[in-house]
Amino acid sequence: MGNEFKSIFGAWTQAIGTVVSAIGSTPFPYVSEQSLTNIDLIGNVMQGTGNALQADEVGEPLEKLGNEIQAIGNSSCVTGIIIDFNEETKQKLIITGNWLQALGGLTVVGDQLKERSNGNQTLILIGNLLQAIGNSLQATSVTYELKDKEIMYGAKGNQGGDTRYTQTLHVSGSWIQAVGSVMCLIGQLKEES
After folding, report:
1. Do 169 and 115 touch, CB atoms closer than 8 A?
2. Pair 12, 50: CB distance under 8 Å
3. What whole-number percentage of the chain has pLDDT above 90?
4. 90 and 78 in contact (C-beta within 8 Å)?
5. Of 39-43, 105-109, 110-114, 187-191, where does mean pLDDT reach its minimum?
6. What is the predicted pLDDT for the residue at 159?
7. Domain boundaries, the chain
8. CA nearest 128: which of 54, 192, 76, 58?
9. Is 68 exposed, middle or buried (0-12, 13-18, 19+ CB in 10 A)?
10. Which Pfam family, any one, appears in the UniProt record (predicted)?
11. Apex CA 77: angle with CA 14 and CA 136, to 5°?
12. Which partner from 6, 34, 42, 90 sits 20 to 30 angstroms from 79, CA to CA?
């Protein structure tokens, strides 16, 4: 597979994956939680595959490293979803995965900042920033959710937090990441043409 094709195919796969994952993170009436989790899983697998394809492209070292870190982050999220760990371990894997994706996105931003800027580069830069922000919001929401469960079921108190807030934070982060990923795809398509 040629490097240019691999990079474009990876960008498409990642963008579609982030949108699929955002759909899986959004509660819909009459759609079971398990169905949404399965959709989120498919999205994370697609994102990781897209990031890995982009990392495999011969390119700038920081961009390559950033995509590798993002792929590892997606793998951590996938592990947290599919392996039968206790709920706390699953959530910690998802938190770690989202923070790694955010770190990978910021690493790519570092590469973009050192390059000479044009309209397409700016679109990719903003897209990667949005992805990092979205992943950070998702990691924060799962952290809050984990703390709420500790409060509800642990010895730290007898009141749970506001689950609507954490859900809104998670859904917002998912869609912000999806918008950022689509912006990166558009910028990359324009840059390659």
Report:
1. no
2. yes
3. 65
4. no
5. 110-114
6. 47
7. 3-192
8. 54
9. middle
10. DUF6944
11. 75
12. 6
Calpha distance 137→141 (Å, rounded): 6
Whether residue 125 contacts residue 110, with contact meaning beta carbons closer than 8 Å, is answered with no
**Closest residue by Cα to residue 3 from 74, 83, 60:** 60
Which has the closest alpha carbon to 41: 88, 86, 75?
75
At 58, list the tokens: 């011969």
Q: Give residue for tokens 């994706």.
A: 101
Q: Are 158 and 193 in contact (CB under 8 A)?
A: no
Cα angle 52, 71, 79 (rounded to 5 degrees) comes to 125
pLDDT at 45: 96
Q: State the distance between the two ends of the chain, measured CA to CA, in whole angstroms.
A: 18
For the chain, the average pLDDT equals 88
Radius of gyration in angstroms for the set of CA atoms belonging to the chain, rounded to a whole number: 17
CA distances from residue 110 to 59, 123, 138 in whole angstroms, order as listed: 14, 14, 22
The Cα–Cα gap between 189 and 161 comes to: 43
DSSP state for residue 84 in the 8-state scheme? -
Task: Kindly state the tokens that stand for 108.
Answer: 């790519």
